[in-house]
Give the backbone structure.
Amino acid sequence: MDDFQKEIEELLDKTTKAVNESVNYVASKVNKEKNKLDIKSQIGYHERTLKKAYCRLGEAYFNSIDSGVAMENNEDLLEVIKTNKKVIRLLEEQLNNL
């Protein structure tokens, strides 16, 4: 009975180890996919912010042409555009490195 019990215990140990390894592998894959989704969400947010800034800049340009007055004080929009383009590029690099 001791040999049979020892074999059962060894089998259970091997099975437990295999299950734990599989669970760890799946958990790491799920975590990686979660990170990818988080980064994609951030990219989407910055892309929407960028589009809004382009729209505001385009409206300011149209208004300046329509009124004949030169565009002024749009440095903040230009900075928003530059910053968000840079953030998007960095997030895309981070996503590609996962």
Q: What stands out?
A: Residues 91 and 97 are 10 Å apart (CA to CA). The mean pLDDT is 94. The chain has two helices and no strands.
